[in-house]
Design brief:
Helix content of chain A: over 70%
Membrane topology (chain A): Multi-pass membrane protein
GO biological process, one term (chain A): transmembrane transport
Strand content of chain A: under 5%
Number of helices of chain A: 16
Mean pLDDT of chain B: 85
CATH class of chain A: Mainly Alpha
Protein name (chain A): Carbohydrate ABC transporter permease
CATH topology of the largest domain in chain B: MetI-like fold
Number of strands of chain A: 0
Distance between the termini of chain A: 16 Å
Largest sheet of chain A: none
Oligomer: heterodimer
Largest sheet of chain B: 2 strands, antiparallel
Subcellular location (chain A): Cell membrane
Pfam family, one (chain A): BPD_transp_1
Number of helices of chain B: 15
Helix content of chain B: over 70%
Shape of chain A: globular
Low-confidence stretches of chain B: 1-20
Order of helices and strands of chain A: HHHHHHHHHHHHHHHH
């Protein structure tokens, strides 16, 4: 539909030529240190203050979740609200774990997000390799199709999907939320962009000359090159799958929920205690926050990399 | 390659390579056939999983949605479909809840998307400076993206609480009386939009930042030589330079806005969640779809809402397309 409004086309153009038409390769050496310094002005105090405010806006709700989760209910509901953590963190986490049945939800979410991330990485790398380096009829049209599918929100098909899952006997079961998202267009496109640049044609040719078949080339030549991008795609897909809400909320019920589905129970009035609600919210977010603390830099890099190129 | 394949065919016809070579020739031929099959077929096999998954779980359901929307289907008997032609559509057209949900989806979409993308643009500009601790600022900006909609909506529900919420407490000194963020329509829509803005601003900022870093330096130099101020450089070089990314984020945010579901559901706390507040004051199309299907058990009606959302999306894209063309012509 609006595929040409994606940065895709310009991005492709950008990798080949600079906007003024000079080949990228010729322009590149001019991006010396002096040039870079010229482009990026040093930030002044105002910029730091604004950035500090932005960081505060981003992090404060999470900090407050922790503060509320470590207080008791009276302290949370007093005015002025508490700004420092209280002493009840572990106790509240334990209670919330039981009240919201978060244990099962955690395991379910780990399975769902883990399987989806693994299969997305595998299938997206296969397809990305084909689109980047193999020649076949209809390649461009199929690639445009992949990009076009990004424009269709999967939510619109929930009614038939629900009926389909009931028929398959997957109602309220994890396969119902795993299968529809086994591979994503974004993932395919991400790997395609990465491999077109990172994988030299000569390597693939050399594999062919040695008589390796395509799967073998994929296994021994493509995978090692693709590994960094695969790691990033894994993490980004994991985050998305973990946080996916609409379809899991419809497909699963409280007896077998993922974490975001289980969290709705906290708001639905079963748990009256505000500090327990926050403890549950904190628990549900903790695994991803931990991932961010360790791999935040890589995830940021991956999102930006996916951005320049699409 | 072609010749040796012929040889093996020839061998089968009896025009015969020497007997001793025959077996190896056959093997060679089979290998070449396999090789050709591999060259031709492997690419399709590699891209097939995506298309199979898409066809089965996205495309087919999308089409089938329109078919279901022409029927009366109840949750208790999913395989009994009674043909009603366009009854569901006429019912929807005369349903105040639909127009209400459409209006809410639109207003929440605007108050969440416009500030979000403007703030993201500003944030990206700041992050594009040479910075100490740039990694920290980037990761911090992206952290809300790692928060599930459930957790985010829960904490904002508390921050926007009428009696003890932090936001009303902070507004107090400015002479603002406690705002009822849930029952007041505009307050509720603002609060829900805040959740959306919080979760997605940093993500969009990183997309912009990536695009900004790809803008060639010469354009800034040229602008500086022409005497453009920093602000003019931002308007004349930076923004046009990342235009395609801006369009991309507008498209993504628009899709997200038409699908909005989790934020209003959880913000509504309990029984009022699905209806979008006691007076439907923040019921979105996504919530209406869910209410029809999973509370009123009318799957046909739910499918009608879904198809209406799809048509709406197409309409939005057409409008965006027309606007883009008009803008391109004017500039």
């Amino acid at each position: 539909m609006t595929t040409d409004s994606l940065p895709v086309r310009t991005a492709d153009a950008r990798t080949r030529t600079a906007s003024d038409g000079t080949p990228y390769g010729r322009r590149r050496p001019r991006l010396s240190l002096r040039q870079r310094a010229g482009r990026q002005h040093h930030a002044g105090p105002v910029a730091y203050v604004l950035l500090g405010l932005a960081a505060l806006f981003s992090l404060f709700p999470l900090y407050f979740t922790m503060v509320a989760a470590s207080s008791d209910n009276t302290r949370v509901t007093q005015t002025p609200p508490p700004f420092l953590p209280g002493p009840h963190l572990l106790e509240n986490l334990g209670k919330a774990w039981q009240d919201a049945a978060l244990g099962k939800a955690m395991v379910n979410s780990l399975i769902v997000a883990g399987v989806i991330a693994l299969s997305t990485v595998l299938f997206a790398t296969l397809a990305g390799f084909a689109f980047a380096k193999l020649r076949f009829r209809g390649r461009n049209i199929l690639l445009m199709l992949v990009i076009g599918t990004m424009m269709i929100p999967p939510q619109l098909g929930v009614v038939p999907l629900f009926m389909m899952m009931a028929e398959l006997g997957w109602g309220q079961k994890l396969p119902a939320v795993i299968f529809p998202t086994l591979v994503s267009a974004v993932g395919v496109f991400f790997m395609r962009q990465y491999l077109s640049e990172a994988l030299p044609d000569e390597l693939v040719e050399a594999g062919r000359v040695d008589g390796a078949h395509s799967l073998r080339i994929f296994w021994s030549i493509v995978l090692p090159v693709a590994r960094p991008a695969m790691a990033v795609l894994f993490m980004i897909t994991f985050v998305h799958a973990w946080n996916d809400f609409f379809w899991p909320f419809i497909a699963l019920d409280m007896s077998n929920p993922t974490v975001p589905v289980a969290l709705t129970q906290l708001s639905a009035g079963y748990v009256r205690d505000q500090s327990l609600i926050m403890a549950g919210a904190l628990l549900g977010t903790l695994p991803l926050l931990a991932m961010f603390v360790v791999f935040g830099r890589q995830i940021v890099g991956g999102i930006m990399q996916g951005a320049v190129k699409g | 390659m072609a010749t040796s394949t012929k040889t093996s065919q020839g061998g089968a016809l009896g025009t015969a390579p020497p007997a001793g070579n025959r077996a190896s020739g056959d093997r060679q031929g089979r290998r070449n056939l396999l090789h050709r099959l591999d060259l031709r077929g492997a690419p399709y096999a590699f891209v097939a999983p995506f298309f199979v998954v898409f066809a089965a779980f996205s495309f087919y359901p999308l089409l089938y949605t329109s078919w279901i929307s022409l029927h009366r289907v109840e949750m208790s008997s999913l395989n009994l479909m009674e043909w009603v032609a366009f009854d569901n559509y006429t019912a929807l057209w005369h349903d105040d809840r639909f127009w209400n949900a459409l209006a809410n989806t639109f207003t929440i979409g605007v108050i969440s998307t416009v500030p979000q993308l403007l703030m993201a643009l500003g944030l990206a500009h700041l992050l594009n400076y040479k910075l100490r601790g740039s990694t920290f600022f980037r990761v911090a900006a992206l952290t809300p993206y790692a928060t599930s909609v459930g957790a985010a909506a829960l904490v904002f529900t508390m921050l926007f609480e009428r009696d003890f919420g932090m936001i009303n407490w902070m507004l107090g000194p400015f002479g603002v009386d406690n705002i009822d963020w849930e029952n007041n329509k505009w307050a509720a829509q603002t609060a829900i939009s805040t959740i959306v803005i919080w979760r997605w601003t940093g993500y969009n900022a990183l997309l912009y930042l990536a695009a900004m870093q790809a803008i060639p330096q010469d354009r800034y130099e040229a602008a500086a030589i022409d005497g453009a101020s920093r602000w003019q450089q931002f308007l004349k070089v930076t923004v046009p330079g990342i235009r395609s990314t801006i369009v991309f984020t507008i498209v993504l945010s628009t899709i997200g806005a038409t699908q909005l579901f989790g934020e209003p559901l959880i913000f509504g706390q309990g029984p009022n969640g699905i209806t979008g507040g006691a007076d439907n004051q923040y019921q979105t199309l996504g919530l209406l779809l869910y209410e029809e299907g999973w509370k009123n058990y009318q799957m046909g009606r739910a499918a009608t809402v879904a198809w209406a959302m799809f048509l709406l999306l197409i309409l939005v894209f057409v409008v965006q397309r027309v606007l883009k063309r008009a803008l391109a012509r004017s500039s």
